[in-house]
């Protein structure tokens, strides 16, 4: 193919089976983008689309940042690939050092993967291995949560709690239980930041699972600090703190899936720092490389690392890994991305703009059909009631209007989810909000 810029979509669309997409419907009326820069995508027709979801929660520093582009280009010309199975290359080690330096205190090791899904499965296996090495190999059960998303691997899907994503794949991992979700619109609708009601009550459901399963059989609890894909469910006050207390009481590891909340989304390097609760393992991906090269990882607390390192010398401490763990291009992109975050002050920028963001999104409270608004940091969800006359979901119709009006927003169920780049300004925030308002009036 001579058109290496790929500015024109191909005539044949059948071969590529797109993920999480009704392919037959989409290909009857496809939507394409061919370029991106800063806050915007560009369509084949040259129309600019403001990216209000950072690609897919990942392009936190804006698209095609020149520092990141050049780092990838340079690394590809120097070392395109090297396995991390008993062979090292400098970029992976340098990034591990830089990443752990900004991680929460007591997280001094990282295991690299190729995606958020791989990071979650890695964390679950780390939890099982930790207990096994300590002589508690009977701790094999896992606890997830309803309405949670933890990727598409068998481990992550087992602890996840979104029914339509699980229904075709059988029983998945045995011995998995689920906490109730924390969405309580009767008491917490239109909360700003952490909702005030129900935190300890929702968390105390873990004691019921412990009583039913016996604590000695449970390895770990995994939650998203803020549940993203299901519609930005913010943890109620006291919820994460109580989960930490219960896990400590019964010897369970606590895993935070920070694939969405990592890298500045809540105004700090990691959501656990912003929310003031430390887990034992932290899954990360997405904003790790600004979405430019696939990468994921698990930050490992000293407690877990010391447990695995207690094995005899010469032992492979964790019998696990991926072909692309610590890939040179991913490591180079991640190093450049972290430098951009730090040198441009994007984590602080996110914290500063969070209040104007909150005010703007909550101004939609009186828009037609809006039943709830949730926000924290630079995340938000606008929830809608059913469409009049039982038509298509209102949120989906509003998202379609927004795209045609020059703003990319994601609809999930009855909610629009928003996660703009960290450098967003008040003008772009105003454009997003007013475009949603116009779509709500027409849906």
Automatic annotation (TrEMBL):
It holds the Pfam family Aminotran_3. Its cofactor is pyridoxal 5'-phosphate. Coiled coil: none annotated. GO terms for molecular function: pyridoxal phosphate binding; transaminase activity. The keyword Nucleotide-binding does not apply. Gene3D superfamilies: Aspartate Aminotransferase, domain 1, Type I PLP-dependent aspartate aminotransferase-like (Major domain). Keywords: Aminotransferase, Pyridoxal phosphate, Transferase. InterPro entries: Aminotrans_3 (IPR005814), Aminotrans_3_PPA_site (IPR049704), PyrdxlP-dep_Trfase (IPR015424), PyrdxlP-dep_Trfase_major (IPR015421), PyrdxlP-dep_Trfase_small (IPR015422). Belongs to the class-III pyridoxal-phosphate-dependent aminotransferase family. This is Aminotransferase class III-fold pyridoxal phosphate-dependent enzyme.
